[in-house]
Amino acid sequence: MTEQKGAIPKVILTLSNVQNTDNEIIQEAIQYADYFDVIEYRADLVNETIAFYETEIQWIKSKFPSKQILFTYRTEDLNGKTKITMDAYFELLKAVIEKKLCNIIDLELMMYDDYMQKLLELARANDIEVLISHHEYEFTPRIKDMLAIYNRMIQLNADYCKLAVKPNDGKDVLNLMSVVYETKQNCNLNIIGIAMEEIGRITRVACGVFGSSMTFGYVGEPVAPGQIHIKDLHDQITLYKS
Predict the structure, then answer these.
(1) Is the pLDDT confidence value at 216 over 50?
(2) How confident is the model over 72-90, as a mean pLDDT?
(3) DSSP assignment, residue 226?
(4) How far apart are CA 107 and CA 105, in angstroms?
(5) Catalytic residue of the set 10, 67, 162, 234
(6) Closest CA to 164 of 180, 151, 188, 152
(7) Cα separation of 160 and 129, whole Å?
(8) pLDDT tens across 180-192, in order?
(9) DSSP string, 73-141
């Protein structure tokens, strides 16, 4: 694991279904290739088979051989509706790890404990870093609850600990960034905190100041509430360079 230093977080470009967009998305990504460090492949946005994902990711790797790949499958949509059974989710991530399709794998914190342990062990055995994530699409938890969420991820020895919340006001945004800062002061792991929607955009650009080590952007159309175009994200992040 590489420790993120200073106030400049890694920039993650989110992609999905890249071979069915007439190359427009990929061409735009190539144009701004210097502005991001990692490509997140959002498999749940197309909901296909492992064979399809393997073809997609290999194609992305051929276009961006120097970029790390983060594999993500969100089990719920923005309305909290389940997209996949927990058993199917486990089998998918297991196959992705065994095929070594990615450099970093996103594991959702709320999966069954035995599945989590098996995937953690499998990822370590295959030299794949682990990002453990938790999303709250309806509200921002209390400070003590957010601290507990990060502490659980730390106990699992994640390489990256990601918490994304929906803020109702500026106080929620401030609370999240305070929790990120406090957590980062007490550990050497990569902490990621995102407040979604427009009100939370400050957490995507000034995140490094508070200790957050990753931020997510897009080309084409945003795939998450409050996401910022990769070029604008890069330009705004540099304003906070220490």
Answers:
(1) yes
(2) 88
(3) T
(4) 6
(5) 162
(6) 180
(7) 8
(8) 999 999 998 999 9
(9) --SB-TT--B-S-HHHHHHHHHHHHHTT--SEEEEETTS-HHHHHHHHHHHHHTT-EEEEEEEESS---
Which one of 135, 166, 184, 234 is the catalytic residue? 135
> How many of the other CB atoms lie within 10 Å of CB of 61?
15
pTM to 2 decimals?
0.93
Closest CA to 232 of 213, 221, 218: 218
The secondary structure of residue 194, as a DSSP letter, is E
- CA–CA separation, 234 vs 180, rounded Å? 21
Average of per-residue pLDDT values in the chain: 92
Q: Which region, left, alpha or beta, applies to residue 47 given φ > 0 means left and ψ of -120 to 50 means alpha?
A: left
| Strand (E) or helix (H) holding 191 | strand 190-195
Q: 3-state secondary structure string, 24-74?
A: HHHHHHHHCHHHCCEEEEEHHHCCCCHHHHHHHHHHHHHHCCCCEEEEECC
Q: In the structure encoding, which two tokens stand for residue 19, read together?
A: 């071979």
162 is catalytic: yes
> At residue 160, what is the residue type?
Y
Place of tokens 């790390």: 68
Nearest CA to 200 among 234, 166, 223? 166
pLDDT tens track for 133-177: 999 999 999 999 999 999 999 999 999 999 999 999 999 999 999
Identify whether 241 is a catalytic site residue. no
Report residue 164: phi and psi, to 5°.
Answer: -120, 135
